Amino acid sequence: MDDVEKKCSREEDFYRDNEDYLNERRKKLDIVRKEIKIKKSKEPHWLRCPKCGSEMHEFKLLGILIDKCEGCNGLFFDNGELETLLDISDRRGFFSSIKNNFYN
């Protein structure tokens, strides 16, 4: 067996012996890369007002997350937050709290 054949054999043995580990590691790295790509794609738009494009800040008010625009003073709910609010039978306290915290 010449040197080239020995080298190829060692490489094949390495891959075969470590195939499961390499595949699992590759899957984890692919997930991390995908998460980074998703995060990077959001950066220009992250917490920006859909109406005017100004910066928004997130507030927690009585257990509900609200995004408030610094430019147009618009209030926005994340996915599921409005539904959570609508499931509550008495919402008057929540809307009074919005008025007192954001519009006084």
Task: From the structure above, extract its key features.
104 residues, alpha+beta, 2 domains, 3-stranded antiparallel beta sheet, 56% helix, 14% strand
The span between the termini is: 86 Å
List the secondary-structure elements in sequence, H or E: HEEEHH
Largest sheet: 3 strands, antiparallel
Estimate what percentage of residues fall within beta strands. Answer: 5-15%
Classify the secondary structure makeup into a structural class.
alpha+beta
Rg, Å, rounded = 26 Å
Order of strands across the main sheet: 1-2-3
Pick out the low-confidence regions: none
Number of helices: 3
How many strands in all?
A: 3
Domain unit count: 2
Q: Could you say which overall geometry the principal axes of the C-alpha atoms support? A: elongated
Structure description:
- By secondary structure, the chain is α+β, with helices and mostly antiparallel strands.
- It is built from three helices and three strands.
- The protein is elongated, with a radius of gyration of 26 Å.
Write a brief structural summary.
Helices cover 56% and strands 14% of the residues. By secondary structure, it is of the alpha+beta class. The longest helix is centred in the first third of the chain and has 40 residues, at 3-42.
